[in-house]
Amino acid sequence: MPNLGPTELIILLVIVLLLFGAKRIPELAKGLGTGMREFKNSSSGKYEEVESDKDEKNEEKKDDFDSARADLDEDERKARAENGSSGNASSENGTSDSDEPRSTEAKQEQRG
Predict the structure, then answer these.
(1) Considering the domain boundaries, does residue 104 fall inside one?
(2) What CA–CA distance (Å, rounded) separates 64 from 76?
(3) Which residues partner with 96 through β-bridges?
(4) How buried is 102 (Cβ within 10 angstroms: 0-12 exposed, 13-18 middle, 19+ buried)?
(5) Structural domain contains residue 61
(6) I need a labelling partner for 70 at 20 to 30 A (CA). Which of 28, 77, 81, 90 fits?
């Protein structure tokens, strides 16, 4: 196998930089590191522990998201109550002022 000197390494790094761009290289390195870590853990039997930790973190994130969503919904209801609007007002193009998708019942009421 040929020896890679400093000149060859610099040329190789420049080619990689041109192919992937400066923004993608850290993402690729992170993915490579994660893959290597998972392979190492699975070969040593620690994979189950890693998966359970990930599941717990995902549950915490989901709970955080749900509570943040509930807070936003509550704030939106308060704002509607202060403005006196019910949120079912339609504009000329038939869309609601709200960014939330309307329920099927509300769509049927608007049509009928």
Answers:
(1) no
(2) 18
(3) 90
(4) middle
(5) yes
(6) 90
In a domain, 30, yes or no: no
Give residue-wise pLDDT tens across range 48-59.
Answer: 565 666 777 777
Average confidence (pLDDT) over 1-8: 82
Residue 67 falls inside a structural domain: yes
Distance in angstroms (rounded) separating the CA atoms of residues 68 and 62: 10
Phi (first) and psi of residue 3, to 5 degrees: -80, 140
Mean pLDDT over each residue of the chain, to the nearest integer: 75
Tally of residues, the chain: 112
**Domain that residue 66 falls in:** 46-71
Buried b (16+ CB within 10 A) or exposed e, 48-61: eeeeeeeeeeeeee
Measured distance CA(98)–CA(88) in Å, rounded: 8
Query: Is 97 within 8 Å of 86 (Cβ atoms)?
Result: no
